[in-house]
């Protein structure tokens, strides 16, 4: 791949990563509520999820998802359900059965002591349960891949998309957890948690309706 083509690909991947959407809302929410390490874990895992779709698109496998309505819609609905779960959790609902298992018990605040693995898993699922990412890369890579492109060139394209996504969300997680920003968020912590919860639920509804 020529340098000029790679730079064009890099620019489009950067614009795609920076576009607002459920990923940004979820990673910002994780970073604010649970700290920088959790935000970084979610950012890296999200990039790996995006990388899966980028790799599939570069190898021509993304058509398996986009051309099969059942697979595409199943992923879309699973993604919407997952975002709804995250939104309700951010609003303070405990969505796992309580120890006493009493149906009349009130919703409880969920513990914030979740592991880095849980944060990483959340970031990965937000990406992998969004089949529109596959559509994006199929449309994008079709402009850059020649019919005779080798495996190395295809892997470079997928690696570029993965790296850009990881770096962007690392910057996002780091930015919202700097001392000055974190102090401002801390003053309005409970209100912001509710705001992000409502925002994520609104995105879930939009994903399901889209």
From TrEMBL:
This protein's major location comes to: membrane
Q: Which domain of life is it from?
A: Bacteria
Protein location: Cell membrane
The residues that cross the membrane are 41-65, 77-96, 116-142, 154-171, 191-209
**Keywords in UniProt for this one?**
Cell membrane, Membrane, Transmembrane, Transmembrane helix
One Gene Ontology MF term: amino acid transmembrane transporter activity
Q: How does it sit in the membrane?
A: Multi-pass membrane protein
Query: Which InterPro entries does this one have?
Result: LeuE-type
Question: What is a single cellular component term in the Gene Ontology annotation?
Answer: plasma membrane
Q: What is this protein called?
A: Transporter, LysE family protein
**UniProt organism field:** marine gamma proteobacterium HTCC2143
């Amino acid at each position: 791949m020529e340098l000029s083509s790679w730079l064009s690909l890099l620019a489009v991947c950067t614009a795609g990563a920076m576009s607002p959407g459920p990923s940004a809302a979820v990673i910002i929410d994780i970073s604010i509520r649970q700290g920088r390490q959790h935000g970084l874990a979610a950012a890296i895992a999200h990039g790996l999820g995006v990388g899966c779709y980028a790799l599939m698109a570069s190898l021509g496998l993304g058509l398996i998802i986009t051309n099969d309505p059942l697979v595409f819609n199943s992923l879309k609905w699973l993604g919407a359900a997952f975002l709804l779960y995250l939104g309700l959790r951010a609003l303070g609902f405990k969505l796992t059965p309580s120890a006493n298992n009493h149906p009349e018990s009130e919703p409880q605040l969920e513990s914030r002591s979740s592991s880095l693995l849980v944060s990483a898993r959340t970031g990965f699922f937000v990406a992998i349960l969004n089949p529109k990412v596959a559509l994006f890369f199929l449309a994008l890579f079709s402009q850059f891949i020649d019919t005779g492109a080798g495996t190395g060139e295809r892997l470079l394209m997928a690696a570029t998309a993965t790296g850009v996504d990881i770096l962007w969300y690392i910057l996002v997680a780091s930015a919202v957890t700097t001392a000055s920003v974190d102090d401002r968020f801390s003053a309005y912590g409970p209100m912001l948690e509710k705001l992000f919860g409502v925002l994520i639920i609104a995105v879930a509804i939009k994903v399901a309706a889209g």
